[in-house]
From TrEMBL:
Name the UniProt record assigns to this protein: Methylthioribose-1-phosphate isomerase
Stated role: Catalyzes the interconversion of methylthioribose-1-phosphate (MTR-1-P) into methylthioribulose-1-phosphate (MTRu-1-P).
InterPro entries per the UniProt record, alphabetical: IF-2B-related, IF-M1Pi, IF_2B-like_C, Initiation_fac_2B_a/b/d, M1Pi_N, NagB/RpiA_transferase-like
Catalytic activities: 5-(methylsulfanyl)-alpha-D-ribose 1-phosphate = 5-(methylsulfanyl)-D-ribulose 1-phosphate
Species this protein is from: Neolecta irregularis (strain DAH-3)
GO cellular component: cytoplasm; nucleus
Localization of this protein: Cytoplasm; Nucleus
Amino acid sequence: MCASLQAIKYTPGHLRILDQLILPHESILNAQDGFHAIRSMTVRGAPAIAIVAALSLAVELSTLEPLSEEETERFIIKKLNYLVRARPTAVNLSEAARRLTNLVCQTSEGKRKAYLGAAEKMLLDDVRDNTAIGDRGAEWLLKDLPSDKKIAVLTHCNTGSLATAGYGTALGVIRSLHKLGRLSRAYCTETRPYNQGSRLTAYELVHEGIPSTLITDSMVASLLCQHDITAVIVGADRIVKNGDTANKIGTYQLSILAKHHGIKFIVAAPLTTVDLTTDTGKDIEIEERKGEEVVTFRGPVLKDGKVDTNEIKTVHIATPGIATWNPSFDVTPAEYIDAIVTENGVIERKASKCFDMTECKI
Ligand SMILES: CSC[C@@H](O)[C@@H](O)C(=O)COP(=O)(O)O
């Protein structure tokens, strides 16, 4: 089997990320490079952007002349405050900044070393947590089914190795189902306008040899109606206290379709995505991106019927002059979510209309 995909490659003092716009690795030398990589979506996915932000500052710190403890603290806090402004919706970024700031403030001697250790640990922790999410989610989905039953699932956006430090969240559940020999097929949506599904999830599913089928976002109702789909599994950018969940635009409509067809709707995310400081989804800031993403399409050209990744082109696919609206995320109300899987286990929504997310942090 070929090696697993890795979006983030780090050795002390060196950070390289896979440029998800074209796919070779790009070097990140400092926090400014980290900020631009996140904002331009060269790296994307809630856990991955938090890790790249933290590690970009780690690389910058490791090249810096010795500073006093006080100067080091001021430097780190200033850079973290800058990095959190790269993208607003995924809470993992601000959660990491808050945690690293607290650590640095509470360490009296060796602040630089403490920061580097904590930032580097994020890579390992994320893979460990995602593996637990994948296994727990798969186990929960299979628990009431005959042991020889294989299931088909649908996922949206990208939640795999390319959106995390490895293994993936929703794609981690799919990976675990496949590992157990219990996955008949994973369907993935194209995920317009940025096409994380057709570009990244499809790439990863094919790379891993997981039986998979790509559909456009407009085909979901027909898929759920005509095929035997057991669950829709998505990741999250922010899960607030009552379980309302911000995720890639289009997730909300999938949850409504799943409910209509009596299909389970599952959110899979690490605890770093759970935001207990926000009560409901109404208070989540939704990033709006440039209309250009809606009216253009970017990809490799076809030469003699073959995809040529050396030549990437942007084409215009809408009538010039048309107005656009491009919210990058939407909020799925908790009442449409059946279960939320974290590394600590699965919380089911039973009779009530919402979750108490404080339960999963215990
Ligand atoms: C494990 S990542 C979960 C989410 O971050 C993912 O589904 C998503 O919405 C990514 O959005 P993106 O805009 O590509 O950063």
